[in-house]
Specification:
Two copies of one chain form a homodimer. Chain A is α+β, with helices and mostly antiparallel strands and 598 residues long. Chain A is 36% helix and 21% strand. In chain A, strands 4-3-2-1-5-6 form a six-stranded mixed beta sheet, with helices on both faces.
Chain lengths: 598, 598
């Protein structure tokens, strides 16, 4: 508490020195990733809030943190209320950040930001919303005031073999240039480490959960310029890269490189993925800038459409992951049968990782696992760590949401298990979540259909009971890359990106009954071609995930004949796929779990 | 044919005199309505194409007509191919109008438009797309060249009583000003006759099918200025209007009025509903303009949400209309049983009108009726008139889409009847269209949900069979006003308008098997409150239409238990509602038609 007071005071001195009336501290790093190194957790250091999403604003006399409904409880617990006010986003009456600042600072004030932490697009929007206040681009204040700040660390990187990635960088470059179709000379700027990892076929361990190399890149029609830590690649690897049109430079040289690059080359980037600082560097020589109009940029757009090698890799990853889930579920049942009094959420969260690690090709978790029993399941982004031991005891749901990276694919699966006796409402809610998940799985749709058109297939089953989930139904999933990946999504909110064959996406409707229980069932699905006829080309989904679904809570009449048929086929299919990878005992267990219901 | 050549030559002289290289002729009138008086059918006069949607472009040497898939066949038949090229909209390879013009005229040319026929919004978009060509605002060329052009006709108008409209103009004005919430003095400009009819509680017969008065209007915080034909209202009616804050002026005075209006008043309008000409008049004195950001404008937005008196009126209209449909269906069956060889589409199209006219309060058709047998049903906007007698003979579907105006409400209903024996594919398609219609009818959704989120409930059943319909699923419906009304819709395309209780909308999935048959089943539904709980406020639909649905083609297994239950309840409900308005014989017939299936 005292610490935070001192830290805020230090930042306020910086504000004064820089003549800014307010300072905005987001949750991101220089590459706009979802996970960040400790070095960039300035917001957490300053106010104590550890959630992954939250923006802090500090003025001379006040400080306030904006976060969304996932984190209201956590923020209330972690924030020193006397120093930092909690602003509940998307709740009636909560002012927007610009509106709040306008009410707090005097006319003519400047609002400070670190231009490495705001995209050009965010900066434009913010400037418009803050008007007539002006935005001032300052240095990173935490350089000075955060004395024991952890440094940025760079680890050894690896090259992704074409046998798992399916396409070399040279071919990817060619494809991107074709899609861009820009006649003049241009240099395309990439700041997102996952776009760079895909383009250059590199992977790393610089970022928690995301197998990324902290890097910048740029490409012209001729080659790719990669800026990473000098020690990340061996000489041999450097030459492999060079053979695939990737030239390696030192990470720190990027700003000077982009400043000094031939100014006859147009600079191109998606404005939501280039920082204000890099943007300003890029055009400082007077070069023209062209904003890539494709949502998320052409690289992300191409990355989202998995090639056949990547798709086969996903299928393989799902096999290994399915086996791990079977062993995990058997473990839970056996422990519960023993009457294990010490079975906790945290223990289970570690257990699934240990089971996966029995496979030699397992690389690690694709996100921090969620294991939530009873009322904890009602917090969509609950963490089983650091709450003291929460036992799996009594009658309720156990919600487990975990994922893994393999060199050939990434998984993301949620299952909700019935523990003990359930109420009628719990059985109904479970059935509706499952029904929604299945409805979306069965969709068949014409080419050009957007995720937003399909969202209600899953959401509608839940809202038929007067309940909702406030998150999206589906997010894109990377291939041994980020578990949350754009540009496609299946959400209520409009997203103009049509679903295309090869896009991998989650399917995860849910119900969160606050203070009581949570239910989420999540499969990974892939868009693929179905038929082509006089009406056009139609797509459907292939369910990639191979993990049995608990049928004990299902209300068969409510689920309905069509969904039951889907569920039975799914269970038959996954039994067939997994059984040969299981021992006799596991196989028998799975044959019971995948029994048809009717 | 020769006529058209001469007419095009006359227009080309106008082009030359006005130094424009191309001229664009849309399908609309000065008020951007869906139906227009003959006076405004310049495009038809010029090229022969009678469809309701189509844009003609004429250059020195060429002429081309852009229309959508509904009209490809018709346009091919009606256009003199040698003189006017058919451009198929939304078909790969068809250039956009601006792109085509750019390829046809020399650099530096002007492109002429009649500024009364383009909205300010359309003009802005067009100007951007035509760049570097410039748009030139000319006079109406048809004033000169169309010698026997029918004049604009103005008929007697009527006042809508508060007992059917539910809200007087004074209260509507107050509501609009509250919604607009503009501090400064303003004058809001209305060019859409349906917005004006709603605001001023007036109805007319100036436009086919739409009960409108050709008029302009404007309102300030104090009063409404209505510009209509001087003879449209009696002195008594004028004084009734004045008592409700509506001041009457002559139609032709509007341009001068808006030019001369106190220039301290900001001009306000939705830019898609004010013509370039009126916009230019409005700001010619130097007054500021504020574009109403609400989709369709605040008046349309308020008009779309029906009040309780209007809703009761809709329910009453559906009763009367349901009775007419029962008598109509009985008539068809009896004629077919007689083996009537002379039962034609046209005869049936007239018959439904005659039956409705037996009710003293029937005002007329809300659109031109569609009665389509067999392959004709595959044309979504088919007209049974002027094709020669098409007999209802053989095995296929008979598709009937008709609607009526009553003083208290407007109807729009489609039913598809099985005639003779159907194929397996026809039965499946019929069942899927019905299933889609029912899926949407059963939706329950959280406040804030947009129509685009719900569209796939109806569309998905159809696309599950690898078929599509290319039109929207639902359009708003006016209250004794236009049968197609915004701003809400249920379509694949994004529309940011959320559905609100009181909004009335159609629900009309379909399948069109070209050259073979068409199926469409359309009910009118209304959004209303369902429940409010800790998750928020939920809405559902009330089905307003009370017309039995042919159950003979239904494949029960494919329809599914939930939809069967809905259908049975619907039939029970409508039997209960309609039976007391029927005679003994009709009642018995209806009891058979509404028998539960299972």
């Amino acid at each position: 508490m005292k610490n935070i007071k001192e830290r805020l005071t230090a930042l306020r001195s910086f504000l004064k020195e820089n003549s800014v009336g307010a300072f905005i501290i987001p949750s991101t790093d220089h590459h706009f990733g979802e996970y960040i190194q400790k070095h960039f957790s300035c917001r957490e250091w300053l106010c104590g809030f550890t959630g992954s999403a939250g923006t802090l604003v500090v003025t001379e006399h006040k400080a306030a943190l904006w976060t969304d409904s996932r984190y209201f409880v956590q923020a209330r617990q972690e924030l020193p209320g006397s120093e930092v006010e909690l602003m509940k986003m998307r709740i009636a009456g909560t002012p927007s950040i610009p509106d709040w600042i306008k009410g707090e600072v005097s006319a003519g004030s400047f609002v400070g930001i670190d231009p490495m932490l705001f995209s050009k697009g965010e900066f434009e929007t913010l400037s418009g919303e803050l008007y007539p206040l002006k935005v001032k681009l300052t240095d990173d204040p935490f350089k000075e005031i955060w004395r024991d700040r952890p440094p940025v660390t760079f680890n050894k990187a690896t090259l992704e073999d074409i046998s798992v990635g399916g396409c070399d960088s040279k071919s990817k470059l060619k494809l991107l240039c074709q899609k861009l179709n820009i006649e003049k000379d241009f240099i395309y700027i990439l700041c997102s480490c996952d776009d760079i990892a895909w383009l250059c076929n590199i992977r790393g361990t610089d970022i928690p959960f995301n197998p990324l190399v902290i890097s910048y890149a740029a490409f012209t029609k001729e080659k790719i310029y990669l800026f990473a830590c000098a020690e990340a690649f061996s000489k041999d690897e450097e030459s492999v890269l060079r053979n695939s049109s990737v030239e390696l430079y030192n990470y720190s040289e990027f700003p000077e490189f982009i400043k000094g690059f031939n100014q006859d080359y147009i600079r191109v980037a998606p404005i939501d993925k280039i920082s204000v600082k890099i943007f300003n560097d890029a055009v400082s020589s007077g070069a023209a800038f062209f904003s890539d109009p494709v949502r998320g940029g052409v690289t992300a757009s191409q990355k989202a459409v998995k090639n056949s090698v990547e798709i086969d890799g996903f299928r393989k990853a799902m096999l290994y992951d399915g086996v791990a889930w079977v062993k995990f579920w058997i473990y839970i049942e056996e422990e519960l049968q023993k009457g294990a009094q010490n079975l906790t959420e945290e223990l289970l969260a570690k257990k699934i990782g240990e089971i996966r690690a029995q496979h030699s090709e397992y690389k690690g978790e694709s996100f921090s696992p969620i294991v939530a029993f009873g009322e904890n399941g009602a917090l969509p982004h609950y963490s089983p760590f650091g709450n003291g031991p929460v036992k799996i005891l009594g009658d309720s749901f156990l919600l487990v949401d975990t994922g893994a990276h393999y060199p050939f694919g990434t998984t993301d699966t949620t299952r909700t298990f019935a523990i003990g006796n359930l109420t009628q409402e719990q059985r109904r809610d479970y059935t509706l979540v499952l029904k929604g998940m299945i409805n979306l799985s069965m969709a068949r749709f014409i080419k050009g259909t957007r995720g937003a058109s399909l969202d209600f297939l899953a959401r509608g089953a839940v809202s038929s009971a007067g309940k909702i989930y406030t998150h999206g139904t589906g997010h894109g999933i990377g291939h041994n890359l980020c578990v949350h990946e754009g540009p496609q999504s299946i959400r209520m909110e409009e997203n103009p990106v049509p679903l295309e064959p090869g896009m991998v996406i989650s399917n995860e409707p849910a119900i969160y009954e606050e203070g009581s229980y949570g239910i989420r069932i999540e499969n990974t699905i892939m868009c693929k071609k179905w038929v082509e006829n006089r009406y056009g080309e139609f797509y459907e989904f292939e369910t990639l995930t191979l993990v049995p679904i608990d049928t004990t809570p299902v209300d068969k009449q409510l689920l309905g004949a069509e969904a039951i048929q889907w569920l039975n086929s799914y269970h038959s299919y996954l039994y067939e796929k997994l059984s040969e990878l299981l021992n006799q005992r596991e196989r028998e267990w799975l044959s019971v779990k995948t029994l048809h219901i009717d």
